[in-house]
Amino acid sequence: MPMVMFTVIFSMTISAAIMAITLIVGKKTLTFNEKLSPFECGFDPYKKARIPFSLRFFLITILFLIFDVEIAILLPLGLFSFSMSSFSHLSATIILAILILGLLHEWNQGALNWLT
Fold first, then answer.
1. How many domains is the chain partitioned into structurally?
2. Is the separation of the CB atoms in 111 and 66 below 8 Å?
3. Is 115 a member of any domain?
């Protein structure tokens, strides 16, 4: 425990010292208006900030993230399939069935159709 405390205090001290050095050394005395204005890859930052956003694209993105995380959770099961118990196999099969049923439900509801 004392070693962990020493490591935390030491890293915080080093971080504070580096931040203090950058504040002392890094002061800029010359300021230019061009350097103070925002630059966004050629876009005019003074135009309307809220452009129309496709709700369909957002829905497909959320569905992709949900199914991607579920598949990433199920992928390691193939490596351990020989050492898993029958309960684990049953659990993985139920989770996969729920995932497929969810995909079919979204497909039937038309959430996966880009053009409607």
1. 1
2. no
3. no
